[in-house]
Structure formats: structure tokens, C-alpha cells
Specification:
The complex is a heterotetramer, with two copies of chain A (157 residues) and two copies of chain B (409 residues).
Chain A (H helix, E strand, L loop, with lengths): L5 H4 L4 H8 L12 E7 L4 E9 L5 E9 L2 H14 L4 H17 L7 H6 L9 H19 L5 E5 L2
Chain B lengths: L6 H6 L7 E2 L2 E2 L1 E2 L10 H13 L10 H21 L7 E4 L2 H15 L6 E5 L8 H10 L2 E5 L9 H6 L6 E7 L11 H10 L3 E5 L3 H4 L4 H4 L3 E5 L10 E5 L1 H6 L10 E4 L4 E3 L13 H17 L1 H20 L4 E4 L8 E6 L4 H9 L3 E2 L1 E3 L4 H7 L4 E5 L6 H17 L2
Parallel strand pairs in B: 3-15, 5-6, 5-7, 7-8, 8-9
Antiparallel strand pairs in B: 1-2, 4-10, 9-10, 11-12, 13-14, 14-17, 16-17
Helix pairs in contact in B: 2-11, 3-11, 4-5, 12-15
Classes of the chains: A alpha+beta (157), B alpha/beta (409).
The complex binds pyridoxal-5'-phosphate (2 copies).
Chain lengths: 157, 409, 409, 157
């Protein structure tokens, strides 16, 4: 049946559908070092991100709970994969690259991590959907900046 | 199924409907957010800019006098459309949001007293909520919410009960919900409110597009709407109110044209409607709005209402058959607005996938978050119909939705 | 005398300038009231309505996303025109009157405290007087008037003296008088006000048309103007303010698009500029305004200013030679506005007689009654110049005025 | 020299120029029964009208002081001529005819009194100038309605 959906699949690639339906990281971490919430008032998307750090301060594990569209859930899930083992600066740099990619649709200096996130680049045609893709990242960055014990709230607006 | 006028011919009036989106013909089902503009409106604005334009009211030269005539003719057209008693009851604003804020400021702060209450319904647009919240917080007026039932109809018993203590000064309520399509029982609302000494304002942003509105027959006190949803330009809205109410209301915005005389010590105000129209008005937009009103009236609201009823019935019938699809809003009396959700797909994903097939629907909270909370939803997808919408377009929507549902299976 | 660009070619951009009035070519000397629209503006609006239109911001479909892009591009164009630090500092309103009222309500009632003072000048337009009178009467703010001298220039010593008690919170003052043509010494005004801890707003309705405005160089806090005088459509105005001021200001009008979230209990606001843009904005007008800004910038303010200086010099020279004619306003630094009276004829009769020769000038108090009182006049006739005005048109004006004077002898 | 002004004279006929320059009734009456003021805020025209009644209650004499344009002064002066000997109802009827004439430019049922006022009919092309022509009439009607001793104020707006 897949072939009859070719016209729908250009933006909603299999990865997005799959990750949207069956995210691998969609859970609250049993123990965590930081957490933050994000919401997109425009569409009601909501996400909370939990982080556990490795001894060297890099991200050891990311979990999330999200209510929202396939794009935002898939983006959260792919993000959790791609930031593992990264430092705060590293993560911020990756987000900068990601934001450029989903804003423009192109990825001029695409490293493997960005490549992994590339299925989301199609949203550049929909500025209002770009916010769905970046929302989990905003929450993640807020968590990275947070003082332990606090729950930061951020908005993709 | 027959439609009461020749939609194909109507569509020829709208150049934009010939556009394609990614190679697919545009299926524009977002008229409830803003309607497309017929040739008559485009031409009227172009003709003004090309042949007859100047500032109005302060004229003395030919171009100014003639532009004033053209602009003031919009007031006559609108007065005729609404069956206002007098043209001076028509105040032009920049949008229905502007009209609602004008009333919330001028009537709300000038006439309503702290301790009085304003009723809105559970299915209002933010434009008919936030100005009253500001009034509540700044002026000490209470805000009461008229609840709706599960069909999306006003609970009239609960509505009447809100008047129990005699504090209600104003009911500001939608005449037609932009999410559920519900047309509220205007006559009954007015009777109840007036029996309790309260005034009634209808937010007619949606209603005026779908049926004839006669403010004298409705017997209401205020009626507001906006040009861009009635096939007119953006940047112009309408406030109708009874003359004696307008006379009693203090001005809202200050500036040119709304004064009778100005000294630094004291200024006096012009007569209505000018008292409420500070500054250079939306001249070109008034001229465009007149063309829109004339064009709509030439088609006639009987035909429009029948056409939209046919479209809505067809849409509900077709969409109801799609597995996993829920239609929100099942009011008896309703207009051409159909909100729905799919069980397996978020409304935003639905809207994006429809868009890739050339179908424009809206998804989100539709500026009615409290209603979403009442429905227990974050968002819905919403298809809204205009004069130019065809039954075939609704079939395309239904067929594509069926495929989207399968895609997300 | 040479002009810095080819006026004949410019005039071809304005279809309306080919009109005749009673068989006479239109000589439009009323651009200060509202300017005519070039083909670029007309085309941009038509193209939107014919090919790419939907409501903005709440989109999700192609037409809405693209219309949002086009509308938001207007913000970029305006930010560029004014050299704003950031596009979020540009708030769109419905007119400069709307902008002034927004500041008077939001900054005036939200930030200024009762007992503080606002300074306006003796040569303000009613739009920059009445909102402050309302603020005075409703909020207990004092209104102080900066006087002018007999040349129509601000008396800077008297201006500075108004700050003596440290109560002044805001100076709201014209950047160019719509009656006298006076360009006020913006840099000096800002330095004095800031030295006394007061903010400065310029009413740039006239000034922005005649010269490059750089809000960073001016170092002011607010700058407001309107589209229809800058060759753009009616129904759209601009408020620029420093980001931190806008952030601190409470919202003014409530409705769609200006919220972050709404519940009946409490609403939260969107970021600037959206916090101040309630409801569907003037979409088509934004698109038209962008075209106007681009068109004006392509010509360039150096050329425009030089052209208008040449026209103004010529007008003053020619009109000064007419017996019994008095020019009001002799400021050193001035724009393309010339007000005058004739000894034997009332300004209204002059305007009507000029009109019968196809010449459009304005007569009256020009929405500046307090200035008229200062000048000891009821009314003046006023010729104002635009990009398309020619030296020959000024000759026609002068020749006809000579005849009018004889006629009334 | 008159011939070179033909193009200016269609609206400003000799009567208007003459009456505007040398009005016959431009004075406060030494004794009067009623008076009222009118002003047109749009243009600053201002007029005060004084009335003396005949024993039968008809208008015996009208005087005025006006500041304004030639149209309003000429209109006031022609009015003073045309209402002499008229009752209140009669005057109101004449004004109704006059208002129609200056609003439309035509005078379908023109009686001699209206004929006398016809030089003003050209203003119909200028709705904002129509108010200059009607202002003295508004003041006159206000005077006719006034209680003796009061000064009524009216506005042509
Ligand atoms: C200096 C000045 N301020 C304010 C205004 C008011 O402009 P608008 O009527 O377009 O709001 C004008 C124009 O009439 C003006 O010249
Ligand atoms: C019922 C209702 N009220 C108010 C509005 C606000 O209209 P606008 O944004 O044009 O001011 C809308 C449209 O969005 C509406 O549907």
C-alpha cells in the first residue's frame, strides 16, 4: 500500500511516521539531573525533557513526554538519539545547525548527526510547523541551563 | 443535489481560485479565517487608487469630496445590509477585534459600573474574551460564562440563571461559533437579557457571512463584524449600535475627525459616528467593503444560506463516514464551519498533509482556547465554506482525509 | 532649476495624475493629507488578492504561510526604512492616530504615573493632543505645551524650562508640522529630554515622507507614522519603540494573535510585536506598505529631500510675490508644506476657486486648532508637495492665486 | 477685466461676491426679540443672528454678524432678505427648499424666494461647503425656537 502514499510521504518520511508513532525515548527518566518543559501556545504542543549526565558532564540519557503532532514527537525522539554523549556547547552547536536546516530546508555543512535529523528538514516550507520541530530542543536547552531541582518553562514562540 | 446558484460562474469572480498548490488545484476551505476577494472588490479598490483618491471629510476639492462620497457610501451600504435605523449607527473600525475593544473600553468603562457583570459564552473567540478580562481586571466588572452543552449549543437555562442577581449589564456573545458552527438563538438571548435589563452585543464575525442580519428584527443593542470575512478587504471592521447608546458612550480613541473643537484646555466631540472614528479612516478599505456588500447582496442571502447549508450537510454526511473521525459541534442551527479530529493523527499533521494535496484547512485552537478546554482538546482541524465552495471540493476533502487516516494507521 | 530625478518618469507610476478635473489637468497639492499611490503599491495589493491571500500567523497551509511571509516582510521593510535595531520593534497599527493612542493608553496608563507630565508642542496635530488630554483627564497626568516663536520654530529655551521640576515623563512632539512645515530639532529635543529622564516620541506622520529617518541616530524612544502619507494604502500605521520599552508596556487591545494562552481566569501575552497586534492585522495593507517603502527607497531620500526642497523654495519664492498673500511658517529647517492666507478672501473660498481650476489644496484648521489660535487665524490654505509634484504645478498655483486675489479685490 | 474671470464665476456669481463683500444685513439689531449663534467646527465659520418680530409674529427684520467665507456671509445676507415677512413655519419650509437646492443643485419647484437664493445652488458639488451655506439658517431656526433672553448655540455639523 505504501506506493499510493508517495504524495504524502515527501514531508512525512517513514522515519517521522515511525518515530512519531513509536518513539524510543518517550519516558520520564527514573533518575535525572535536569528537566524542563516547553510549550507552543500556537498549537498546544507540550513537551517535558529529562536529562541524566555522565560523570564528564556530557549527556548520558534523554527522556521526554510530549503531547503534540508527529513532527514534534519525532523531533524529540531523534534529538534524544543525537545529543547522547554531547557536552552543553556541543548540543547548542548541533541545535544551531538543526535550526538552520529546518528553517532553510538545506544543510550546507551536514555532519552525520545533522544527517540523522535531516528527515525533519521538509518542515522549512511551514514556518509554523518549524516550531513543532524546534520545541523539544528549546526544552532541552532550558534543561541544560537549569539549576538542579528547578523545572524551567520555555516556549517556542 | 442541486445548489441554488451557479457556483462555477461565481468562481469566475475569484481570480485566486484558479491557482494551483504544488500542481494541485487550490481547494480553499479556510474562508472562516478570511475569505477570498471577488473581482468587484479588487476593481473598486484599484479604481479608487487609479482615478479617484484623496483624504476624506476635510476636503474642499473635487478628489476629496468625491472620495468622501465613495467612503460614506460604504456606510450606507452597511446600514442597508444590517437594516440599521440610521446610517449614523454604523461606526467603522479596523476589525471586529477593534469593534469589540471599542465597546469594552467606551461602553465598558464609560457606562458599566464596577460590580456589574458581563456575560460571554463558553465558545467565544479570544477577541470576545480578552477585552472583557482586561475590563474585569482594570474596572472591577465581573465576567460570567454561559455554558454550552455537548452538542455545542448554549445551555439556555444556565444562561438565564446567570441573571439571577440583577448585576448583568451586558451580554457579549457570538452569533455563530467559528469552531462549532453553532448559530446561537439570538432572539431568545435578547429577550432574556432585555427582561433582566441587560444590553446585548453579538459578535457577528462569522454569522454575517452566512445569513441576512437585521439588527432591528434581532432587537439587539450592538452588532460587530469584519470586512475580510465577508469577501472584503482587511483593515476594516464594523460596529453597529443603537443611536442612543452611541450618543451616551464616551469616545475611545482621540485624534483628527472625531472632534468638534480642540483647545489645550478642553476638547468637544463630533456627532456619531465620527466621534468614534479618530484619524484618517480606512478609506480604500471602505470603498472595497462597499463593493463586497453590494456583491454579496446581489447574490442574496437566501441563496447563500441555502448553498452553505447544502455544503455543510454534505460535509457532515461525508466526514461522518470516515473511520476514526470525530466531528465537533452538532448544533441544530449551524453555519458552514466543520471542526473535526482524527484518532490516529494530530490536527496539525492532518492540515499539513491536506495542504500537500492543495487543500487549505486550518488546525489549532482557532483562537478559542477556553472552548478547546471545554471540549477536552488541544486542537481541531477545521474546514469552512464560502460562496465559492463546491460539493466536489468537499468530496476531495473527504477522500483525502480517508487516505490520511490510512497513512497514519 | 534642476531637479534630482526625472519627475516625468515618476509621474508615470501614478495613474491618477493623468486625471482631469473639469477639463483641467489635476494639480494635486494635497499629499500632506494623503499621498497618491504608485503602480507598485496597486500591483502588490492586486497580486495578493488575485494569487496569494489567506489569513496570517495561524496558518498551516501554503496560502497562509506565504501570506504570512509577505506580511512579515513588510515589518522587515519598515525596520530597514527606520533603521530599527530589530524587526520586533515594529508594531503595526491602523494609523498614526492608532499608534499615538496605543502609546497614550499602554505607556501612558501603564508606565506613567499620575502627577507626571507629558509635553506636546503648540503645533501638534489633534491626534497628538486629544489622546493626551484623555490621559490627563482619566489618569491625572499633566499636559505641558512647548511654545513656538513667530517663525513657527520651537522655543528651545522655553522647552527646556518645562522640565524644571523633574515631573516630565514623556515628550510627544511632531517631527514636522503639517501646517507650518517646520522640522523640529530632533537631536536637541532628545538630548534635553533624556538629560531630564524623559522619553521622547516623534509624530513622524509628515517627516517620514520627506527625509530619511534613522531611529538609532535620532536616539528617540518612540517614532510613529502612517502608510497612506508615504504613498502606501490607508488602514495601516506604524509604531516603532525601543524593544525594552515595548517589553515593559502592557498590551492595549485584546483579542486573537496577541495572546500566549487564554483561560477565562487569566490570559498571558505573546511576545512583542504581536502583544500589540490584536486580531487579524491589515494584511493587504501591510503588503501594499512594503511595496511603498521599497518604491520610496529605490528613489532614495536624498533625491526626495532635494526635490522637495527645490519645490518648497520655488513655492515660497513665487507665493511671496503675490500681493496680499501671507505665508505662515518661516522655519529654517522645513519640509514641503506651505500654508498661506489671502487678505481679501477666506481660505475656503480660495480652495474652492483653486479646485475649479483643477488645483487641489486643503483649507481649514488642518486638525491643529490650538496652532490656529496661536497664529490668530481660523484657517489657512495649504499646499503640500509629493515626489510627483513639479515646479510647473507650483507655477500654476501661483498664477491662479494671483487671479483669485484679483477676483476678490 | 470681468471676462477673464468667467471660469471662476460659475460658482462665485456676482451676487455672492457682492453680498460676501458688502452684506446689507451684517449688523446686530439695536432691539431684538431673539438671537442665536451657529458655528461650523470643520472650518471655523461662526455666525450670530438677531431677529425682530412684527406684531403678527412674522419676521420683521434679521441682522447677523459672521466670520467666515464668502459663501456663508452671502448666504446669511440673502437669507435675511428672503425671510422678511415670514412666519416660523413659512421660514422652516423655505429652509427645507433651500437645503434641497444646495444639496442637489436643482430646484424643481422653485418659487421666487428660492429663485433669489439660487446663486448659492452651485455649492452642491462641495458637500463640505454646503454647510457654509446652511449655517446661518441653522442659527436663524435656533433663534426662532429660542425662549426670549436665551442665546441658543447651534452647529452645522
Ligand atoms: C503631523 C501629523 N500627525 C498626525 C496625523 C494624523 O494622521 P492619520 O489621520 O493618518 O492618523 C497627521 C495627518 O493628518 C499629521 O500630519
Ligand atoms: C467569531 C469570531 N469573532 C472574532 C473574530 C476576530 O476577527 P478579526 O481577527 O478579524 O478581528 C473571528 C475571526 O477570527 C471570529 O470568527
Amino acid at each position: 500500500m505504501a506506493e499510493t502514499f508517495d504524495d504524502l510521504r515527501d514531508l512525512y518520511q517513514e522515519t517521522i511516521l515511525d518515530r512519531g508513532r513509536h518513539p524510543r525515548h518517550a519516558q520520564r527518566l527514573a533518575t535525572f539531573d535536569a528537566t524542563a518543559k516547553g510549550d507552543n501556545p500556537m498549537c498546544g504542543d507540550r513537551v517535558q525533557v529529562w536529562l541524566r549526565y555522565a560523570p564528564d558532564g556530557t549527556i548520558a540519557e534523554t527522556g521526554f513526554e510530549a503531547r503534540g503532532c508527529a513532527i514534534s514527537i519525532a523531533s524529540a525522539d531523534l534529538m534524544a538519539d543525537s545529543v547522547q554523549g554531547r557536552s552543553k556547547t556541543d548540543t547548542a552547536a548541533l541545535f544551531a545547525g538543526f535550526r538552520d536546516m529546518v528553517g532553510s530546508g538545506v544543510c550546507p555543512a551536514c555532519n552525520p548527526a545533522l544527517q540523522q535529523l535531516a528527515p525533519l528538514s521538509g518542515v522549512h516550507e511551514y514556518p509554523s510547523r518549524v516550531k513543532c520541530a524546534t520545541l523539544p530542543w528549546h526544552a532541552l536547552l532550558a534543561a541544560l541551563e537549569s539549576t538542579p531541582g528547578n523545572i524551567e518553562e520555555t516556549s517556542s514562540e | 443535489m442541486t445548489v441554488p446558484f451557479d457556483v462555477a460562474r461565481i468562481r469566475e469572480d475569484f481570480p485566486i481560485l484558479r491557482q494551483t498548490i504544488r500542481g494541485k488545484p487550490l481547494v480553499y476551505l479556510d474562508s472562516g479565517a478570511s475569505a477570498q476577494k471577488p473581482r468587484a472588490v479588487i476593481d473598486a479598490m484599484v479604481q479608487a487608487m487609479e482615478t479617484q483618491y484623496a483624504n476624506v471629510h476635510r476636503g474642499l476639492h473635487w478628489m476629496s469630496e468625491r472620495t468622501t462620497d465613495a467612503y460614506e457610501a460604504a456606510r450606507d451600504a452597511v446600514a442597508g445590509l444590517m437594516n440599521a435605523r440610521d446610517r449614523s449607527e454604523i461606526v467603522f473600525t479596523n476589525s471586529v477585534t477593534g469593534s469589540l475593544n471599542l465597546v469594552a473600553h467606551s461602553y465598558g468603562r464609560g457606562i458599566l459600573k464596577p460590580g456589574q457583570a458581563v456575560i460571554v459564552s463558553a465558545m467565544e473567540h479570544h477577541s470576545n474574551i480578552v477585552p472583557w478580562q482586561m475590563l474585569r481586571d482594570q474596572h472591577g466588572v465581573e465576567l460570567r460564562i454561559a455554558p454550552i452543552d455537548d452538542n455545542g449549543e448554549l445551555d439556555m437555562q444556565a444562561f438565564e440563571a446567570l441573571f439571577h442577581d440583577g448585576k448583568v449589564g451586558l451580554v457579549s456573545i457570538t452569533h455563530m461559533s467559528n469552531v462549532l458552527g453553532t448559530v446561537t438563538p439570538a432572539g431568545q438571548i435578547v429577550r432574556i437579557a432585555h427582561a433582566h435589563g441587560a444590553k446585548v452585543m453579538f459578535d457577528g464575525a462569522q454569522a454575517i457571512v452566512h445569513r441576512a442580519v437585521d439588527v432591528q428584527a434581532l432587537d439587539c443593542d450592538f452588532y460587530v463584524w469584519t470586512g475580510h470575512k465577508l469577501y472584503g478587504p482587511t483593515g476594516i471592521g464594523v460596529l453597529w449600535a443603537r443611536r442612543e447608546i452611541l450618543d451616551a458612550m464616551p469616545p475611545f480613541l482621540g485624534g483628527g475627525d472625531m472632534i468638534s473643537s480642540v483647545t489645550f484646555e478642553k476638547s468637544t466631540w463630533a456627532q456619531v459616528p465620527h466621534k468614534f472614528e479618530a484619524g484618517t479612516p480606512a478609506i480604500l478599505e471602505g470603498i472595497g467593503l462597499k463593493a463586497a456588500v453590494d456583491w454579496v447582496r446581489a447574490i442574496g442571502f437566501d441563496a447563500i444560506a441555502a448553498h452553505e447549508a447544502a455544503l455543510t450537510d454534505h460535509a457532515i454526511a461525508r466526514l461522518s463516514r470516515i473511520e476514526g473521525l470525530t466531528i465537533h459541534g452538532r448544533a441544530q442551527d449551524r453555519g458552514g464551519v466543520v471542526s473535526f479530529t482524527l484518532d490516529k493523527a494530530h490536527a496539525h499533521d492532518v492540515a499539513t498533509l491536506l495542504d500537500r494535496q492543495g487543500i487549505a484547512v486550518r488546525a489549532g485552537h482557532h483562537c478559542a482556547e477556553p472552548l478547546m478546554q471545554r471540549l477536552g482538546l488541544d486542537s481541531t482541524a477545521r474546514a469552512t465554506f464560502g460562496i465559492y465552495t463546491t460539493l466536489e471540493e468537499i468530496d476531495v476533502l473527504a477522500d483525502t482525509l480517508t487516505r490520511v487516516r490510512e497513512f497514519f494507521q
